[in-house]
Amino acid sequence: MFDKILIANRGEIAVRIIRACREMGIKTVAVYSEADKDCLHTLLADEAICIGPASSTQSYLNMERILTATVAMKADAIHPGFGFLSENARFAELCEKCNITFIGPSADIINRMGNKSEARKTMMEAGVPVVPGSKEAVYTVEEGLKMAKEIGFPVMIKASSGGGGKGMRISYNEEDFEANFQNAQMESVKGFSDDTMYIEKYIEKPRHIEFQIMADKHGNVVHLGERDCSIQRRHQKVLEESPSMAISPELRARMGETAVKAAKAVGYENAGTIEFLLDKDKNFYFMEMNTRIQVEHPVTEMVSGMDLIKEQIRVAAGEPLSVSQDQVRLSGHAIECRINAENPSKNFMPCPGLITNVHVPGGNGVRIDSHIYSDYKVPANYDSMLLKLIVHGKDRADAIAKMRSALGELIIEGIETNVDFQFEILSHPAYQSGDTDTHFIPTYFPEYCK
Q1: pLDDT value of position 134
Q2: Reported pTM
Q3: Which of 258, 317, 319, 365 gives a 20 to 30 Å CA spacing to 166?
Q4: What are the start-end ranges of the E strands in 165-220?
Q5: How far apart are CA 203 and CA 324, in angstroms?
Q6: Residues 6+ apart with CB under 8 A from 362
Q7: How far apart are the first and last CA of the chain?
Q8: What Cα–Cα distance (Å) separates residue 390 from each residue in 10, 20, 97, 228, 300?
């Protein structure tokens, strides 16, 4: 087992990893930018080291500084969390060259599955159902339009290296295709330094269903059920839950087996997520694979009883999975609300600033993953997420009631947040009845989508 792990991330996920390491008896090193000097992860870790200015490119995305810090602090492994360098194949490769364990899959697998067009091709060869679309990468408007005509409008234009809703546009006809393609491609170049695009059939009002998988170095792969991530704004998740109201036990078994098959097709190791689109006729299609731990991993932990961060660390150290598929038991219902420093009524504009007072809810089945505290100044340089509020109930109705109660108790003063908006979602009859899809927010809350 590792003696010391450096966490190449910040905020709540860094705090989450530190806590898991503490329980395992592993020492931790936090890295921080000048803007994060007083962030909670720097205070909780055994050691902390500044790696640069506030800009992500000069700190959390600076591979050389992070690797230098790892060597200087004598850490033997790096946990990348999510975002930043977590799906960067070059970083995983450099870790290997420096004899530092990267807690995640190999650089080769990140390359194959992180590139969406390559991942589609791999899944098609493995017999996994995919959304009809381009088999090869697309670089020009002319190539894209030709493919769109073959597939049939509407189509989704996607950045091959995209994520977080960036580099994505829907085209409904030939007339709007060129502008949408160019805008998506420019966004991809700006955000990912990659102009590679692909085109796929746009499935209207689908559910976004993802399966959590875990794989070890000995060929064992298990899935831990699904998460329904259909409540989104601008292709970014707002609220997640497990299990999904739309999935029957038979469909869950089929989708889970497909997720395991997809992971085995690439020789996957560590935590990963197979993401599917589920249409109104219950047909499911592979969308992409995330080769890292997800923001919403706590809902799976609540229903499965497994600590995914600890399992990641054990697998990276060469240990076999702690459970086989027939030992996985899913119980109850879990919901996670992402609480962000943003103003929903102003197109979800980020609202950094000084938090003057915090009160978090508690009680049976209530969990908070966060890095904020009273008098903490939320920097403007990073993602706006402040905390994740997670609840677990005996069934969905119980979980909804528990989440509404917890949201009503949560207080964050000094800055704008989306707490009230989350409460509105949980209180909406369509949500409570399980009538959700990826268009839920535009359909029922159009005032927030101007």
Answers
A1: 81
A2: 0.90
A3: 258
A4: 168-171, 197-201, 207-215
A5: 34
A6: none
A7: 51
A8: 20, 17, 38, 14, 10
If 0-12 CB within 10 Å is exposed, 13-18 middle and 19+ buried, where does residue 363 land?
A: exposed
User: What does the DSSP assignment read for 268-302?
Assistant: --EEEEEEEEE-TTS-EEEEEEE-S--TTHHHHHH
Options 3.20.10.10, 3.40.50.150, 3.30.1490.20, 3.40.50.300; CATH for 132-201 is 3.30.1490.20
Q: Could you tell me which residues come within 8 angstroms of residue 110 by beta carbon, excluding any fewer than 6 positions away? A: 87, 88, 89, 92, 104, 291
- Mind listing the pLDDT tens digit for each residue in 255-288? 999 999 999 999 999 999 999 999 989 999 998 8
Q: Which two three-digit tokens encode residue 184?
A: 């998506």
In this structure, the number of other CB atoms found within 10 A of the CB of residue 114 comes to 23
Q: Are 351 and 413 in contact (CB under 8 A)?
A: no
Report the pLDDT value the prediction gives residue 219, as an integer from 0 to 100.
96
What does the block give as tokens for 212? Answer: 């959590």
Query: Domain spanning 4-103: which CATH class is it, in words?
Result: alpha beta
- Looking at residue 163, its pLDDT comes to 67
Confirm if 114 and 85 have CB atoms less than 8 A apart: no
Burial (0-12, 13-18, 19+ Cβ within 10 Å), 193: exposed
Whether the link from the prior residue into 243 is cis, omega within 30° of 0, is yes
The catalytic site residues sit at 292
pLDDT at position 415 is 98
Q: Spell 153-182 as b/e; 16+ CB within 10 A means b.
A: eebbbbbbbbbeebbbbebeeeeebeebbe
The residue type of 208 is H
pLDDT of residue 434: 95
Number of H helices, E strands in the chain: 15, 22
Q: How far apart are CA 194 and CA 181, in angstroms?
A: 14
In CATH terms, the fold of domain 207-448 is D-amino Acid Aminotransferase; Chain A, domain 1 (3.30.470)
Give the pLDDT score at 164.
64
Q: Which residues of the chain have pLDDT under 70?
A: 163-164
Is 168 in a helix, a strand, or coil?
strand
- For residue 191, what pLDDT is reported? 79
Q: Where are the domains of the chain?
A: 4-103, 132-201, 207-448
